[in-house]
């Protein structure tokens, strides 16, 4: 019976896709010289709007990956999606990195590179335009993208807050494909 529960637990964990963003060798300067470790940054997501970012640091890469995976799965957050894109334009800022995310019509694809692309793909976004401005530090760019995705608002909630209909807030191309 215990084997069955373990197998069931693995099936729930396997619904998440993992993508390694960066493996970096980092150094701490001490009296006798430098101490090297590895820092792994990765993202997990279910392709349906749930994402998590984790970083792990250890003396060996596999240990750092294990730590990063645990942290990413612990910090899962829900993202608001509108079909295969995002409901509205949003900018995420972390330190010197700024990432602009713009919704795109169906068939556009993911116009992004590096860590931004990996994060958007595991989130389940298939059509989006992005622009990274400022710092090119991979970790900060990914964190800025995550911050922007989490800041997205639901069209229904925003329409109710403004006293408008959902159709007035959705782009014309989103209305055509959905309706």
Average residue-wise pLDDT:
86
Structural class: alpha+beta
Tell me, what's the shape?
Answer: elongated
CATH architecture of the largest domain: 2-Layer Sandwich
CATH class of the largest domain: Alpha Beta
Low-confidence segments, ≥5 residues, pLDDT <50?
3-9
CATH topology of the largest domain: Ribosomal Protein S5, domain 2
User: What is the count of distinct domains?
Assistant: 2
- N-to-C series of helices and strands: HEEEHEEEEHEHHHH
Strand order of the largest sheet: 1-2-3-4
Sheet having the most strands: 4 strands, antiparallel
As a percent range, the share of strand residues is 25-35%
The end-to-end span amounts to: 48 Å
| Oligomerization category of the chains in this entry | single chain
Q: How many H/I helical runs?
A: 7
Which bin fits the share of residues in helices? 25-40%
Radius of gyration based on Cα positions: 19 Å
**Total number of beta strands:** 8
What's the layout of helices and strands?
Blueprint: H1 2-13, E1 17-30, E2 33-45, E3 50-58, H2 61-74, E4 77-78, E5 90-94, E6 97-103, E7 110-111, H3 114-123, E8 128-134, H4 138-150, H5 155-162, H6 166-169, H7 172-178
Parallel strand pairs: 7-8
Antiparallel strand pairs: 1-2, 2-3, 3-4, 5-6, 6-8
């Amino acid at each position: 019976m215990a084997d069955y529960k373990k197998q069931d637990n693995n099936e729930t964990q396997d619904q998440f896709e993992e993508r390694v963003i960066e493996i970096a060798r980092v150094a701490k300067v001490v009296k006798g010289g430098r101490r090297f470790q590895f820092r792994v940054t990765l993202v997990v997501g279910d392709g349906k709007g749930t994402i998590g970012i984790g970083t792990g640091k250890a003396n060996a890469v596999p240990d750092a990956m294990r730590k990063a995976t645990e942290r990413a799965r612990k910090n899962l957050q829900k993202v608001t999606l509108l079909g295969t894109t995002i409901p509205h334009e949003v900018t995420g800022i972390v330190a010197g990195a700024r990432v602009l995310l713009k919704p795109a019509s169906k068939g556009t694809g993911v116009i992004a590179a590096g860590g931004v692309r990996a994060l958007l793909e595991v989130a389940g976004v298939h059509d989006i335009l992005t622009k990274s401005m400022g710092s090119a530090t991979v970790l900060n760019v990914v964190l800025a993208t995550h911050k922007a995705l989490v800041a997205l608002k639901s069209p229904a909630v925003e329409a109710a807050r403004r006293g408008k209909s959902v159709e007035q807030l959705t782009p014309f191309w989103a209305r055509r494909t959905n309706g």
